[in-house]
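dumping this here so i dont lose it
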């Protein structure tokens, strides 16, 4: 980092239909901004970068392309070394890919929900039935108890339904779930200290996914957040911010 001693945190959002960085991190960004200089880009294939994925196919190709995107962003901003927070199969997977290819750029990292290392979903979320009701159901599955977040889920369903139907969004999203013969990132090649956080009540993937990832990482550790679903930062924002902050500044 140049010109400042303030620690930098790069936040990489999740990979649900219609997601963008601003809506993904809204529940926790104000708190993180008290401790870090925060950078939260829209990843390739989402938000302002829907049309920027080129002809990518499969989760590994997308993860590597997003890792290059983040690497180039750090170069553009003159940031030599940062902390990283990666959410699930988009941000988490991109984060692992960056750690595998340019570990010198990341001091410490937190990944959430298995970071895309679990089994692929049986069906592509939302797009087979692209209605507002389907989007609302898709989002409800990401929290432990949708009754605790009724207003938030209603608002997000409206926003993300509109964004998911923008030109090019469906094509990009479906291509992320195509099978690939390329090998996944080998966690054993990642030297960076990594905390793998998982919600105890995650309905997208079981805690065992993050447990396996943490065990495979040379400097990995597992954190299970009681009562939280896949969206740990929404279900348990205070505990989430505390755990992330303590790990990154240890």
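and the seq i came up w/
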């Amino acid at each position: 980092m140049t010109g400042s001693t303030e620690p930098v945190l790069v936040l990489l959002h999740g990979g649900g239909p219609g997601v963008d960085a601003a809506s993904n991190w809204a529940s926790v960004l104000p708190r993180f901004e008290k401790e870090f200089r925060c950078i939260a880009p829209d990843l390739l294939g989402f938000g302002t970068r829907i049309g920027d994925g080129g002809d990518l196919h499969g989760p590994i190709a997308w993860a590597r392309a997003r890792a290059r995107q983040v690497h180039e962003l750090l170069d553009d901003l003159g940031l030599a070394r940062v902390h990283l927070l990666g959410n699930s199969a988009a941000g988490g997977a991109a984060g692992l890919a960056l750690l595998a290819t340019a570990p010198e750029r990341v001091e410490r990292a937190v990944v959430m929900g298995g970071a895309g290392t679990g089994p692929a979903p049986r069906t592509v979320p939302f797009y087979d039935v692209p209605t507002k009701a389907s989007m609302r159901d898709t989002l409800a599955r990401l929290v432990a108890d949708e009754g605790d977040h009724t207003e938030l889920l209603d608002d997000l369903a409206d926003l993300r339904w509109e964004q998911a139907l923008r030109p090019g969004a469906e094509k990009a999203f479906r291509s992320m779930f195509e099978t690939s013969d390329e090998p996944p990132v080998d966690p054993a090649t990642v030297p960076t200290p990594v905390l793998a956080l998982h919600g105890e009540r995650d309905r997208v993937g079981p805690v065992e996914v993050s447990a396996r990832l943490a065990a495979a990482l040379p400097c990995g550790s597992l954190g299970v957040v009681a009562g939280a679903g896949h969206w740990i930062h929404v279900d348990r924002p205070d505990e989430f911010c505390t755990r992330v902050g303590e790990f990154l500044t240890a």
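The chain has one domain: 8-248.
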